[in-house]
Amino acid sequence: MSNSVSTPPGRPSWAAGSPPRKKRDWKLVGGVTAGILVIGGLGSACHATTSAGSTSGTSGNAKTGGKTRTVPHFVGMGLQSAQDIAQKQGFYGLKSHDSLGRDRHQILDRDWKVCSQNVKAGTTTSTDTQLDFGAVKSDETCPSKDQSAPTSAGTTMPDFKGKSVNTARDALDSSTSITVKDASGKGRYVLVESNWQVCSQKPSAGTKLSGQPVRFSAVKFGESCP
Hints:
- The chain is of the alpha/beta class.
- Helices cover 23% and strands 19% of the residues.
- The strands form 3 sheets. A 3-stranded mixed sheet has the order 2-5-3, with helices on one face. A 3-stranded mixed sheet has the order 6-8-7, with helices on one face. The chain has a two-stranded antiparallel sheet with strand order 1-4.
- It is elongated, with a radius of gyration of 41 Å.
């Protein structure tokens, strides 16, 4: 008995068995490999160029310290004008505070004027120096000296008479129960506390604070306490 398999007419001789192994087209493989190497080389070159550019940019923008400039005379200027002139001189670290010690925020700078400056006019200093302007509203009179807001009360009741209600509140512990009454007897609501000054207080100045409620009577600034 024969183990041979006859091949039907019209079919290749390997149809009944495994097909013959094809020879690889080494020219095609070589071409693809070369292409990949070229593309990879270009990518590496691009990456190197980008990295070098970033390093150069960082070095060029590195902080080397501010230049020196003469500080102008700002007192008497409108706050907005003073800030604009300061920036033209290269001073960009600017801040301002309420010269009357009422801790009001200078929201519209054009409504305020400069009463003091922390760096004396004519001083030559680095433009990195922060300039701080003491200011009051344009229609107010500058105090002879900047008034600071009350510091933290701690365990003893300070004397808040003449101080703004909002700074008195800030000086007391945040858990303190505070009542504010219109001292004029008109029954007005004390809404914007920075516009009201303390006329009387309970407990009195020097009293030990142990969590007791605090009561203030107040009138608007510009009014006299009864």
